[in-house]
Amino acid sequence: MKTLYFIGGTMGVGKTTVSQQLKNDLPDSVFLDGDWCWDANPFQVTEETKAMVIRNICYLLNNFLHCTAYKNIIFCWVMHEQSIIDEIIGRLDTDNCKVIKISLTVDEKSLRNRLSSDIAHGIRTDDVVERSIARIKMYQALDTIKIDTGNKTIREIADEILAL
To answer: Which of 49, 103, 117, 154 makes an SS bond possible with 144, Cβ 3.0 to 4.6 Å?
Structure first.
């Protein structure tokens, strides 16, 4: 049986870093970051591009699910609304697959510190801070396992996920 890890959370919460750690920890694993499916310049959020990114994500995830080389599929993306999670899962062939839905959470102060560091290092632009903070509370309403990332190392967070 395969395991599909859905890892959501607001920008800066640690989704990509934790997912990369899981990829290294889990046998026969593959990792997809949803952001890779519409990395464009200029970045445009329209009905057309939102539909396209969902198609891209589902296409890749289904290919991973059908590939015998992979037993663990790790997918991370912002996924701040239940409808996004439900739509993606609804388009996947999850027969013989355990799906674990996780939301990484964090407090505002920790998130500001992380994002400020990323901005100082040129990884993000300063407009991300308020957008990310505005989404913190949205994750509490989702049908996911919540994992608080505040004051935890990547190893500790990954170990919590591995224990699920």
So the answer is: 103
Give the pLDDT confidence of 127-158 residue by residue, as tens digits: 899 999 999 999 999 999 999 999 999 999 99
What is the Cα 163 distance to its own chain's centre? Answer: 18
Cβ atoms 45, 26 nearer than 8 A = no
Per the DSSP assignment, residues forming a β-bridge with 82 are none
Task: Indicate the pairing of strand 97-105 with strand 145-148.
Answer: parallel
* Cβ atoms of residues 12 and 120 within 8 Å: no
| Residues forming beta bridges with residue 103, ordered by sequence position | 8, 146
| d(C-alpha 83, C-alpha 24), whole Å | 30
Task: Report yes or no on whether pTM surpasses 0.85.
Answer: yes
